[in-house]
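Exercise 3.2. Students should predict the tertiary structure of the chain below and write it as structure tokens, then compare their answer with the key that follows.

Predict this chain's 3D structure.
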Amino acid sequence: MEIPDVAREWPLVARSDELRSFRRILRATDSEGCVIHGMSGVGKSRLAAEFWRIAQNSGTPTRKAIATVGAAQVPFGALAHLLPADLDPEQPVRAFQSAARSFAGSKGGKPVLWLDDLDLLDTTSVVLLRQLLDAGTVFLVATVRSETAPGEAISGLAANLHRFDLDELSASETATLLEAALGAPVSLSTQHHLFSASRGNPLYLRELVHGTLGTGALSFDGEVWHLAETHTGVTRRLRDLVQGRLLHLPPAARHLLEALALCEQVSEADAVDMTSRDMLQSLEGSGLLVATAEGRRTTVALAHPVYGEVLRDALPTMRRRTLLQEQIARTRGYGSRRRGDAIRLASWELSVNGTTDPALLVKAAAFAAFGNDNQQVVTLLEKLPARSRNLRSDLLLGNAQRNLGAWEEAETAYARANRHARSERELLMTAGARTFNLFWSGAQVDRALAVNDEALTRLSGSGSTTMLLTNKGHMLAASGDPVRGLALLSELPDRIDDAADPVLWLLCATWKAAASAAVGRTARAIEFAEHAVKQAKAAQGTGDLPHPGSQALTLVMALSEAGRFDEAAAVGAATHEDVVRSAEPMQYLWLCLHMGRSAWMAGRPGTARRLFAEALAMARARRHTKALQIVLSGLAASAAVQGDTESAAAALRDIADQPPMGFFAGQEHLGEAWLLAAQGRLSQARSVLMSAARSARDAGQLMSEGLLLTDVARLGAPREVSGRLGELADLCDGRLAPARARLAAALADQSPGALSEVSDECDAMGAPLLAAEAMAQAGTAWQLAGEPRRSTSAAHRALALAGKCEGAQTPALVLSASAAALTKREAEIAHLAAATLRSREIAELLTISVRTVDNHLQSIYAKLGVTNRRELARKLGETTPRSSAHP
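Answer key:
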């Protein structure tokens, strides 16, 4: 796929302040020009080119010159093509006069001279330029590389020029540039990886994008761009660029950089031992190295990951072995006592010898697991001899394989760990690991429950038995039976310190809160989720515990079910970036799912669509099928509400092939229902939702039932569901259930006052789409009541609320006030006809005769004052046909 030149586009995208400043400087009569400072690749030349273009467009004459190392060997080498052929540098006065006449001879006033790499200019040219600037003969636009130290002459020349310092891009700027270049959303994990790899250098970023596109590692799934974890995007051009920077380094400096490419980081003392302190400071100043202080210790690393990849690829085998052996000797010399020394020694010795001490391998794998480097864990432990495997190594291997999406291989490792288990604690630990893997990664519900039941027969301690029973409770709740699940989860100890297994405690705490929310006990759910977050944070560092975000994602769900959508969004946003950085793929997936559901429920389909797409990309990459039905359904519903029926249908194509989630019962049909609604098939959409709501009710999932029944009301049948929604309002706490009941009742009664009140309530709750729909219906009701002023005011308010809803197009919004005179059947036929369906197609969908359809259409036309389908569509406020419209 062809994409714009990222490095070239950047100044036009994000350098508006610099462009405005340049225009002001260019107009100033006393200005000598400007100089752009920055590291290689940050876009200095591109910004200078844009300045030059601005000058050209203003009618100012322009000149261009490029200073190079070769041209610097000859006086006036870079400027020769701009100067008179007879210029004699041995007669400086005449030379200056001749040069001045050459520039002044241009029509249009003082010319703009664009000079790239001013720091490479020869001394004679510097003197001439200084004279030309003093005389006001030229306006200079120059670039200077920050990694070089310009001489005194260059510094003097630039002293009176306006200075622009170009920094490398921030993470948010990198994200903006990526999405502008690729023309579609980019997953946050991909943004993070590309920013980390490029360190915000636009040129490196461009080459990495082109390289990963070329290998297929960066791909578009129809919703977001996603980068495979085993990516490589170092193009030939990027290698040449990096090699060019390293070409003239002294041997000692090259030696250090090669060692860092292999070892990632070394201590400051080791770096000085390989080169010298002066050389170390020079390399840091040139932007090739970074030094990081950690307490009393300072480490040195390459400034860009790309440097390491290029250097490693260029190293011959024997040179690589020699460098690693030297660093192994240094590390063992001071006792390998520093944090991370174990993993480094193990990986270096494996590279050199193909083997290492088994105990060191396991220790190194534990460090790698702590840093969530799952592939490194597998690489290390696959080298472990069979006779040296033990409970610890097999658990580490199983966890890493599970996180990489290989649940079958993980089960093999866990089963082996179970055979190593001897104590009650060890048996409980392996049972927890196996059930989690089978249930969540493999979607093997029956096998997971069987493993848990088998462990119950082997363990006798009350603490272990309690944890296994609550573990069964979490699986029952997550499978769609929160009532039975909560009965078992009620035995969960209140504090993690009192649990026989802290990892299992955190998992069960997650589902105790989630199940409470599902049955309508949202206050209890929020209280326990907040408690679990505090417990998780306090326990960090005491074992192999998951990231505290595992508890925060449940808090997002609980707050949403209570109708506290703004708080849910704030908790999700605060957790999201942290989870991305920590490289916890499963937590990232489920956090995106919960945040996506919250955004959907609040009425922000664009945000929901983006988050569901993120979750989908991660689920597919990790072969995590458990979440797919809910993710695909949410994605389809979000796209359909935005009018993108094509993408909605694509998301639903393989949903039936995925294993059932059980939890969020009925919501796997949301996408189907809203796609039908977007196609104008309202009665079919309502039928799907009613059936889904019955399944939620049978499972005891009251909040899910309430969501589905509310959508039935929104799609034109409030009288059919208002009674049950009223019952749910009595059964469930929080703000959301009562608001849903009041919305359905107001829609059923078509009471403009009640609709306005519930609109304000929904808006205050952070649910703008429900608020907009209620207010639009209030406007219609006021119109029918003969109150045109109130109707107009409500319509304006509905329009303002709809503006917060990210392109949502729902029947309750698009029906105009005049359409309120239609019966339910007429409204349905009107929507289908406006969607360009023929009478025969409508008749087949609704199982009525073509004549009945035509009769209804004549009645609709008469009531709305239109004569054909096109006018009908315009009257209803819909765009037809609806086509793909990516957010």
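Discussion points: The chain has a mean pLDDT of 85. The chain has 45 helices and ten strands.
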